[in-house]
Amino acid sequence: MHYLCYSSCKRGVTLILRRIQTMTDYPNLREAIVDQAVAIAERSCWEAVRLFDIAAELKITLDDIRPYFREKEDIIDAWFDRADGSMLKLAKQDDFLALPPRERLHRLVMAWLDALAAHRTVTRQMIGSKLEPGHIHIQIPAIMRISRTVQWMREAAQRDGTFLRRALEETALTTLYLATFTRWMFDESDNAQRTRAFLAQQLQLAEILDQAVYGRARADSNHQPDATSGNKTRLIADTTTSGINDDQSAPATSAGNVAVETRTQPE
């Protein structure tokens, strides 16, 4: 009896010490797991990433991973959460609200993409894995994930449309975001200049359509009409951005090609 008690206590102490060591080695274990998953994918491909490989390289156990990620797909959500965070940090800059609304949206979308730019190929493979046929249990949450990101964009840009106008804004912004994201995944131009020009062009088109439906923007009566007051205006601003290059556009690539890439490891 005493031996059994001693053994149980010893195992408990060993487990506690190991947990403390893990916390010491990785103060933010969740982020360390994401980093390691991306690093493994860069060496092979996202399809080849396994949770037990992540655990082995971090010298932790699968049980250490489980509180943070229920499955590998959750790591993808965490990867895109980082992009959401980078986008929202941009919105905290002092001069952000002084920008025209259209420029705010342009900067927010590009800040989201820039946060992923160092691992563009892996990001493309992550998206491809979600598009594989038969993965309805993955694709439905992915749609909700897109909606959350778009909502954060609207909040960061301080969009205040209501009812039908809000619904139209959300639809338009979701379409622009997805089209730009798709273009960006295959954009090899310097600093994604083609993607930036594409987004600026689409925002300008959206502005024209918005003005045709709703007319010119009206100043918010609760704010002073100066540039630094942070007024909330329509989805489309009354100003235009410069540097739109109509000839710079990357060819669209089908979702099926993306999915195939995730199953092909580099030689």
Describe this structure in words.
With 267 residues, the protein is an all-alpha fold. 64% of the residues lie in helices and 0% in strands. Helix 5 packs antiparallel against helix 6. The longest helix is centred in the N-terminal third of the chain and has 24 residues, at 2-25.
Short description:
64% of the residues lie in helices and 0% in strands. It is mainly alpha-helical and 267 residues long.
What is the distance, rounded to the nearest whole angstrom, between the alpha carbons of the first and last residues?
58 Å
Strand content: under 5%
Instruction: Give, in order, the helices and strands.
Output: HHHHHHHHHHH
Could you give a short account of the major beta sheet?
none
Structural class: mainly alpha
Please mark out the parts with pLDDT under 50 across 5 or more consecutive residues, or reply none.
Answer: 218-256, 262-267
Q: What's the alpha carbon Rg, rounded to whole Å?
A: 23 Å
Query: What is the quaternary state of this protein?
Result: single chain
- The whole-number mean of residue pLDDT values reads 80
Count of separate DSSP helical elements: 11
- The dominant shape is elongated
Key words describing this protein structure:
267 residues, 64% helix, elongated
Task: Describe the secondary structure blueprint for this structure.
Blueprint: H1 2-25, H2 29-43, H3 51-58, H4 62-65, H5 72-91, H6 101-114, H7 120-130, H8 136-156, H9 163-185, H10 193-214, H11 255-262
Helix pairs in contact: 2-3, 2-5, 5-6, 5-8, 6-10, 7-11, 8-9, 9-10
